[in-house]
Amino acid sequence: MTTQFRGVYPPVVTPLTADKEVDTASLKRSLDRMINAGVNGVFTLGSSGEVAFSTDKRRAEIITAVVEAVANRVPVMVGCIDTETNRVIEHAKVAKELGASAIVATAPFYALGGMAEVEQHFRLIHAAVPDLPLFAYDIPVCVHTKLPGDLLVKLGLDGVLAGVKDSSNDDVSFRFLVDDNNKAGHPLTLLTGQEVVVDGAYMAGADGSVPGLANVEASAYVRMWNAYETGDWATVRKEQDWLAALMRIVTVTSGVQGFGAGVGAFKTAMTLLGTFDTNQMPDPVQPLGLENITAVAKVLKECGLDLVRTPEEVAATTSA
Amino acid sequence: MTTQFRGVYPPVVTPLTADKEVDTASLKRSLDRMINAGVNGVFTLGSSGEVAFSTDKRRAEIITAVVEAVANRVPVMVGCIDTETNRVIEHAKVAKELGASAIVATAPFYALGGMAEVEQHFRLIHAAVPDLPLFAYDIPVCVHTKLPGDLLVKLGLDGVLAGVKDSSNDDVSFRFLVDDNNKAGHPLTLLTGQEVVVDGAYMAGADGSVPGLANVEASAYVRMWNAYETGDWATVRKEQDWLAALMRIVTVTSGVQGFGAGVGAFKTAMTLLGTFDTNQMPDPVQPLGLENITAVAKVLKECGLDLVRTPEEVAATTSA
Amino acid sequence: MTTQFRGVYPPVVTPLTADKEVDTASLKRSLDRMINAGVNGVFTLGSSGEVAFSTDKRRAEIITAVVEAVANRVPVMVGCIDTETNRVIEHAKVAKELGASAIVATAPFYALGGMAEVEQHFRLIHAAVPDLPLFAYDIPVCVHTKLPGDLLVKLGLDGVLAGVKDSSNDDVSFRFLVDDNNKAGHPLTLLTGQEVVVDGAYMAGADGSVPGLANVEASAYVRMWNAYETGDWATVRKEQDWLAALMRIVTVTSGVQGFGAGVGAFKTAMTLLGTFDTNQMPDPVQPLGLENITAVAKVLKECGLDLVRTPEEVAATTSA
Amino acid sequence: MTTQFRGVYPPVVTPLTADKEVDTASLKRSLDRMINAGVNGVFTLGSSGEVAFSTDKRRAEIITAVVEAVANRVPVMVGCIDTETNRVIEHAKVAKELGASAIVATAPFYALGGMAEVEQHFRLIHAAVPDLPLFAYDIPVCVHTKLPGDLLVKLGLDGVLAGVKDSSNDDVSFRFLVDDNNKAGHPLTLLTGQEVVVDGAYMAGADGSVPGLANVEASAYVRMWNAYETGDWATVRKEQDWLAALMRIVTVTSGVQGFGAGVGAFKTAMTLLGTFDTNQMPDPVQPLGLENITAVAKVLKECGLDLVRTPEEVAATTSA
Fold first, then answer.
1. Interval B73-95: pLDDT, tens
2. Which end of chain D is more exposed for a tag (fewer CB within 10 A), N or C?
3. Average pLDDT of B288-317?
4. Which pTM value belongs to this model?
5. Those residues with Cβ within 8 angstroms of residue D137's Cβ, 6 or more apart along the chain or in another chain
6. Chain C residues within 8 A of D237 when measuring between CB atoms
7. What's the sign of the alpha-carbon dihedral D50, D52, D56, D60?
8. Chain D residues in contact with A286 (beta carbon < 8 A)
9. Following CA atoms A261, A264, A269, A275 in sequence, which dihedral angle do they give, to the nearest 10 degrees?
10. Gap from B293 CA to chain A (nearest CA, Å)
11. A231: left (phi over 0), alpha (psi -120 to 50) or beta
12. Residue C299, SS3 per DSSP
């Protein structure tokens, strides 16, 4: 039975300077804030950590900065996201060298294939870095393959996978996966990538969560997790309700979509709150503009958070 | 604030005789069993009620049989499912005449269109039967349109919609819909069509559920609902866990898919349990065969249910 | 080897009066125009014939009006489009009684299933009306199932299907289907539902076409067909180029989509050209407004067609 | 008006040795064969050139080997395929340094976004390597974005794009794109990625083709192109018919799908014909096994090609 990597593992949003370099000072500030709030670990270079936008050099910079800032206080999971096996293995070896506690890989993408290729993909990655726990990242919205529960449990029993980060938005499959994993002796640590229905995932028996919104406000996710551990469902629900209200920062924007809307709102909120210095986004994405920043600020205030910058000040941070 | 149609509203599975006529005796038996278990109402001619397979004459037979068997003990919602507005309105008028308490309609399907057509569709249906509460049935897997939350709340505030049956399997959208509905003064009754993550929907604040599995075992859904009403989350979770285990009847079959696997397993379970006389399916779908019936029986026994027929006996019911 | 139903079979667009009744005078005018242009037959109650929008009574009206207006000059294929088998069979029997030369049915839709259900569906329809040629209508954009070539040829060899109307927009599959059909002795008549790449379908060896745009201008499709029959590819290409330019009536509109844009543009063009009396659309779809009518008129003029109504006059036809 | 890069540009399939290294001898043999057959250029590191499976080091090896083997006889287009802008730009700079005549990039993928990001993506790539012609690679099956014709023509007029490789399998859009490009003064060279409906693309006015099947048999594509240039449509059709029959090598396999079936069949055919030394595939894909190799061999023989290896000999090449 696996007990590693349980709890709250925020996917770390990567702060940029106005000229689109990694802002290590803001990154450290954000990591300190999350660790001080009590998160159980962090996950860097996930989808919201702009892994797809970062060159290999940039990825190494980010891993290095996160590992240094975390300084062994909590485990650091590292996303090794690329199209097919050999490219992923290269990232995995770098991650290992730079101090990753575990690595996270999706199904292969871009080229078309079937489940035989998916299974072989995970087996080869594990074989290449056998001493690093490997998490499967189930994110069909990005890779257009849904990882089947029976394959995941089988790879868990075979020692290939240590766990799953479920970003499939398919809560029915997730519940069945939790059940199958329990029946199999719990070989996998099962983390939900949800943000506003984490309570449901906990009801289902998740081993933890990887909520992007925790970059904005980790303490509520920590309180929700602790309440779950003690069976205090009323608190679980109360925290989730507040976090769902806060998550509206990603739905109040207009004229933007996908990564630009979601991570754009996270960065904007973190800049309004003083954690980040800018809401800069990686090419080819634009940062949120004044109207959208104002909409995000309104949500934060409605949720009772104190802003240290005005929307105008945030808008000015990327034009510097 | 709407309080009508709260609670557990099973979508009624339609029993057939071996020669594919409506089996009114089994239907009455099933409805009595669900009503005696304490369901708050029933929904006939939903997707699992084989509305798409039934001619207009057959649909009228089913409504009539359900309304008679229910005998005003609980409300009867009636699915008015067809491709476009005028066809739906015809069904709505029949449903009204035959005693429906409310009607349920999906977004238009088959022809391609946009949200302007969806909105006009619901407005015209309501205008045609203004005194019958109208529920929107959000089921993108069948109609390939996801109903947006802001449109639903707007149609609620305008008095067009009385509620929503959410079968979208998008629990994030559902949580935001619940929240928006509350902010708007709760014009809509919001029912989840989920079966194994109803606990999550209750955490989100659903007004009730429409679980097909309640045809097999309604009492656990009633107990879950009552526990939710009193804030007893431990019981909510316990009941949901048992129901999730029971729901495995739809995943243990092989060689079948979609309606044939899902409703096929419900009918098979109900025949094994003695509620239905056969597990017959409508053309062009085949009933589950012996191997699959045996797999369903195994799940029922693991869940502690007593079978009154053997798999062989069930297999024989459709070859009579 | 099947030679029936070869050539140009326009799907008949259904004209409505301003108050949304069937406009039989315009319908006769349009059919006369197409038959005089030399089409080999017509197909009524296809997707563009607003089958999905028409009640059963309306469908019977349309079939009757078309059969009467055609008066045995050419064959009349009739669309029998509905969700599942028994509903389709009812339409098929009506079509037969009202004088259909052949019937056209899609894969089942709304309920989920697999290829076993698709095959049984076509077998049962044919068994119910064995003396009427049955065409499979391959239109995944509406029914979300692609009919596989090997199944189609098998059903052709078994005498279940007489042909296929291919609206799959998958020209690779179509070419392989033509090839497989030839190898099997040509049991199927293969008609393409394309409008602007009919030349490619003829290169592939199609037995004919079912182009909605022929309602606007049938003679060019007839010339293209005749050129194809004599191997005059330069003429095939010239006619297709002109028709592709004319087809821009469906892409120049704005603020509308799907059926409202496509059939809306056809009806508008036919009203500008004097064939139809209005560009009225069935509920819940709006007719094209003045701005879009003007855009359609511009395309018609650029293609050298003479308009008998101004855009303003067309816009006025639905507000009468 | 652009006239560069017209004609037949095969996407180069990458031969591997049994131990999965680049087989430069087979690669040279294949390139010589295609160039001697008269192709107008080649495209390396396309989807079928296993770009997604190749590490950066491997990609550089392949470009280098292709450029050396081609030795300026024809232009070499190079695929710069990666998730987002900055990663693509890195590949573009390498391609330039290694001697690419032009580069080819898809829409961004993995992260979700909109058309604003797509446009900015191509603009930034062009700005980074302004002196290299940039082709947009429209391949929604891999990147899940369809490039709109109006955006492509606009980027052509702005000097950002030199052309388009259309692998969208949407022949209607392609015909409209050709037409819009002509109206705009032909800023773009438009190449179809089709294999069995190239005749239709030529009817539509394509400037050339990029058929993977040309690796197996380039001369027929060259003859088809030359016939198209002289308006000899009967020959265009005859060649296409033969090539469609040959393309069946990708549909006769079983138990494999996607890249493994398609490129697997190409490599197998080339090994049977003596061009490649093995049919080895990149991780995590398996090479075709004996049964599938035999099926491919049967198609080649039916098409009149002479095999230099037996299926058993080909099967033995990867187990060496």
1. 999 999 999 999 999 999 999 99
2. N
3. 98
4. 0.97
5. D46, D79, D81, D104, D105, D106, D164, D165, D167
6. 203, 233
7. positive
8. 116, 120
9. 160
10. 21
11. left
12. helix
Contact C199 D203 (CB under 8 A): yes
- CB contacts under 8 A, C 109-168 vs B, are 109-114, 116-118, 120-121, 123-124, 141-144
Q: What are phi and psi of B106, to 5 degrees?
A: -90, 175
State how far the Cα of B94 lies from the Cα of B89, in Å rounded to an integer.
9
3-state helix, strand, coil in chain A (%, to 5): 50, 10, 40
- The closest CB to that of A110, out of D123, D142, D282, belongs to D142
The Cα–Cα gap between D86 and D259 comes to: 26
Q: Is C84–B282 a contact, with Cβ atoms under 8 angstroms apart? A: yes
Q: Give the residue from chain A lying closest to B251, CA to CA.
A: A176
| The token pair that represents C156 in the structure block | 């052709």
Q: Do C194 and D172 touch (CB under 8 A)?
A: yes
Q: Is D201's Cβ below 8 Å from some Cβ in C?
A: yes
Q: Are B27 and B75 in contact (CB under 8 A)?
A: no
Considering chain C, what is the average pLDDT of its residues? 97
Q: D91-133 pLDDT, tens per residue?
A: 999 999 999 999 999 999 999 999 999 999 999 999 999 999 9
Among the partner-chain residues B179, B200, B251, the one whose CB lies closest to the CB of A200 is: B200
Is this prediction's ipTM beyond 0.90? yes
C-alpha C47, offset from chain centre: 7
Decide if C233 touches D, using CB distance below 8 A: yes
Q: Do A204 and B200 touch (CB under 8 A)?
A: yes
Give the residue from chain A lying closest to B169, CA to CA: A170
Whether B147 and B188 have beta carbons less than 8 Å apart is answered as no
Residues in C closer than 8 angstroms to D251, CB to CB, are 176
D18 close to D318: Cβ distance less than 8 angstroms: yes
Task: Look up tokens 């001898």; give the residue.
Answer: D25
> What pLDDT band is residue A294 in, cutting at 50, 70 and 90?
very high
**Minimal CA–CA distance to C200: which of C162, C228, C167?**
C228
Phi, psi dihedrals of residue B127, rounded to the nearest 5°: -65, -30
Distance CA D270, CA A177 (A): 43
D2 pLDDT tier (thresholds 50, 70, 90):
low
CA geometry: angle at A97 spanning A91 and A102, to 5°?
Answer: 70
Which band of pLDDT confidence, cut at 50, 70 and 90, is reported for residue A4? confident
Contacts of D127 (CB under 8 A, 6+ apart): none
Chain C neighbours, 3+ Cβ pairs < 8 A: B, D
What is the spatial distance between Cα B196 and Cα A176, in angstroms, rounded to a whole number? Answer: 9
A120 to D257: CB separation less than 8 angstroms, yes or no = no
In the predicted structure, residue B2 carries a pLDDT above the cut 90? no
Nearest to A144 among D83, D113, D144 (CB): D144
Residue C248, chain D, CB below 8 Å: the answer is yes
Cβ contact C85–B284 (<8 Å): yes
Q: Do A171 and B203 touch (CB under 8 A)?
A: no
Dist. CA D140–CA D106, nearest whole Å: 9
